[in-house]
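User: We ran a pulldown and think these components assemble together. Before we commit to crystallization trials, I'd like a predicted model of the whole complex to look at. Sequences follow.
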Amino acid sequence: MADNQLLPSRSMSPNKSSLPFVLELNEVTFGDPLESSIRLERACMTLREGELALLKLDRSQKSRGLASLFQGLSKPTSGEVRFLNEDWLGEDYDRHFRMRSKIGRVFEDRAWIENFSVADNLLLASRHHNASLDRIERELDFWTDYFGIQEISVQRPAFVEHSSLQIHQWIRAFLGTPALLILERPMKRVSATLLLKFVEAVNRLRRKGAAVVWFTSNESDHCNTIASPWFELDLRGERHVVTNGDGTDE
Amino acid sequence: MLSERALPSILWKTAWGSLVQTAEFLGSQFLGRCGTVTQIFALLWATAFLAARPTSWTPPVRAIFLRQLLYTGVDGIAVTLRVGAAVGVLLIVQAALWVDSLGITTDVIAPLLWRSIVRELAPLLACLVVIGRSGIAISTELATMYVSGEVEVLDAQGIDPMTCLVMPRVLSVIISVFCLAIVMATSMIVTGYVIGSAMNAIRIPWGNFLDGIAREFSSLDLLFFVPKTTISGAFAAAICCSDGLSVRGTMTDVPRVTSRSGIRAMTAVFAVSATLSVLIYGRFLVFKIGGN
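Assistant: Here's a predicted model for the assembly, 542 residues in total across the polymer chains.
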């Protein structure tokens, strides 16, 4: 069993039991012995439509492994991860790819296909999944206006300034109204003055039904404008048992 | 001290141990090769399956396919023409030597040249040009993408790396090798005629020369040309993609993997070419002068 058992440290979660699950972790054990990895032991967490989980990490901890676990890209040592009531097991890769197409993700690092322009990168997934071009263009116009971007860069990512790239990454994650948003330290490399705007954008997607997992190691990300329901989970330190992510004790 | 009686026993044990070790080494090498070949066939099967599925051809996949075709096929024309011209000169010089030393006529030597170009040299050299220009580049690109996490980025967005990265590249290489082999053969023949005429080794007009080639052309040539270009190209592309995506570790591992990939692809092309020759001709001596 775990060295310590963590419950949500803070939550603002009204009774949302009627809403469908988006992400479920059932008795998941995960993580390698590296100091920088997040280690879970028999962790359980549920995230419903519109909920936000703020996962607090130490600065040294990498979120990529756990984020990939949520997307079925990494396998847990034991336990089960479910997304929209479907598991990531088996070899039906087409189903897995379809499931992943409903997830928007802001990567902490290594987020771009370097051979493509930023514009191509932004539209790559939408076009690959045959999303309506009209709808994508409307959404793109909306988000570029919202974040005050003059135009989508047609340079390759290596030639675009880091803060601008990060905002482009937000837009890429928001396109197509995802069912789950995975945000790996999304405020990294951008001005803190954009936090309120970013949180409002996330809230907007949550009102449309998106569940959100937000990895952070910055206390200032705990913004008062995060709409409820949301909860915090502290994943700093040793192995963790995370129970009942919906904010109630087990 | 070893007794004289114990010595044969020790020698026997040592010899037996060496034998077992050798057998283990050979066995592991054999199984490793079998695994590699299986992996390549699996990759080719997956490519064929994905290419035949209309839903795979999304706009980004089409764009990647066309871009690869442009780089491998169209941009490779110039170097193919140069290589073809150089080899054409070498061939015609050799042909002139044979004509002089053996006292045979151009009519005898022409079919041999034509068949060696169309059935063997052009497909093989086109494959080598494509491996040198694009195969190693593909391997490097995929290995770099893998190590730098770009393949995971694709995967995370619900984009199958096999559909988006491997399938369009393998198909582009197959088509490019086929087309460049035609360019190569044309370049060899035209240069051969020009140089042969200048050396007075060929004394017939261009029209007659072309008529001669047309007469020599048989459906059997296609039987050699099409499989040699497509199968060799497919193997070369599959090896480069497979090696590129099998890289593990850091960016410093990329050059090691990609140089190995180039050598393996070239070895495979020679092996495939030789195997097809043996299979199609049904004999080990592939050239039969004056016959089919």
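Confidence is low (pLDDT under 50) at residues 284-292 of chain B. That may be worth checking against your pulldown data before setting up trials.

User: Thanks, that helps.
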